[in-house]
Amino acid sequence: MDINKIFSSFTSDDDNIVSIDFTEHPIYLLGMFKKLILNHKIFKSKNLFLLKSLDPDMNINDAEVIGDFVMFNRAWHYIKDVNPLNETHKQIIESSFSTNLIDSIDSAISYFENKEEYEKCAHIFNIKKILIDYHK
């Protein structure tokens, strides 16, 4: 078997090969939003404990504030592109219902309320409203 013959059958100008970027799809965006927040909740205490054991003089509150800032703003990076006014996005939001997604949304709203970033809260709340209204 000649490996070069196998790979030569896939040329860059082959019209049968389609490349799809799913990183802008609402399913991906909602999934990444949820995943970031849930993983942060799971690993937050473990990471803070590890940091404290490595440097006993470290201010854990500062580390927690920084970690929350980075994570919630990165989660915002994903959910900001989910458009609750777009009919396709709305259908995907409805089909993405889970208690983990609702919990992640509630955590993000709470975080951004405390930071007085109400535009972000409103956008995220509109997504939550679609989830709740569809699953009554």
Give a topology summary.
Elements: H1 3-8, H2 26-54, H3 60-79, H4 87-95, H5 99-114, H6 118-134
With helices defined by DSSP (H or I, 4 residues minimum), what is the helix count?
Answer: 6
Distance between the termini: 59 Å
Which bin fits the share of residues in helices?
A: over 70%
Cα shape: flat
Structural class: mainly alpha
Q: How many β-strand runs?
A: 0
Strand content: under 5%
Order of helices and strands: HHHHHH
Number of individual domains: 1
The biggest beta sheet, please? none
pLDDT < 50 stretches: none
Q: What gyration radius follows from the Cα positions, in whole Å?
A: 20 Å
Please provide a written account of the structure.
The protein is an all-alpha fold. It has one domain. Helices cover 71% and strands 0% of the residues. The protein is built from six helices and no strands. The radius of gyration is 20 Å and the shape is flat.
